[in-house]
Amino acid sequence: MSLSSFVLGERLRQVVDAANERLDHMSARRYLLRHDLRKTAGARGRSGGGLGLRVADGWTGVDRDPATLSGGESFITSLALALGLADVVTAEAGGAEIGTLFVDEGFGTLDEDTLDGVLDILDGLRDGGRAVGIISHVAELRSRVPAQLRVSKTRTGSTLSAVGVG
User: Fold this and answer.
1) How is the quaternary structure described (predicted)?
2) Which of 146, 84, 91 is nearest to 119 (CA)?
3) Domain boundaries, the chain
4) Do residues 63 and 55 make contact, with C-beta atoms less than 8 angstroms apart?
5) Which CATH class is domain 3-148?
6) How far is CA 65 from CA 17, 84, 102, in A?
7) What's the rounded Cα separation, in Å, for the pair 102 and 107?
8) Higher-pLDDT residue of 25, 101
9) Cα–Cα distance between 99 and 91 in angstroms, integer?
10) Using an 8 Å Cβ cutoff, are 100 and 133 in contact?
11) Is 41's pLDDT higher than 50?
């Protein structure tokens, strides 16, 4: 393994550790990510060089390829990785936080329990002082998100209205 692959692998391990704190909650303790150190051939025959991921499934006890996750499972895993990366970057930057997060779609792929878990995590970010924007067409979110900007489109153009904004 080259030095650069080793360094990237170590950073990936840090991101995975941070991501798992949230993925554990969002998946109701079902999934955890594992940093895969094995050299596996990629889709184009390239070596993974220790930069692979596996998903530990607590229900089956089997490690899975991330490609086998459903749409909703992929969404929460991707969100957990993005938040984990933000945590690692924040720690590296001496605590300078990434203060705003926008999540665009993906909510329509979640069942009710998983949606609750995701919104718990996003509420925690908001309670911690971060601004969290959700871009979605999922009707259930209207009752769960207190402050909203709604875009309505018509033949003459779009209008913007604020709902629940104090």
Assistant:
1) Heterodimer of SbcC and SbcD.
2) 146
3) 3-148
4) yes
5) alpha beta
6) 18, 19, 27
7) 13
8) 25
9) 13
10) yes
11) no
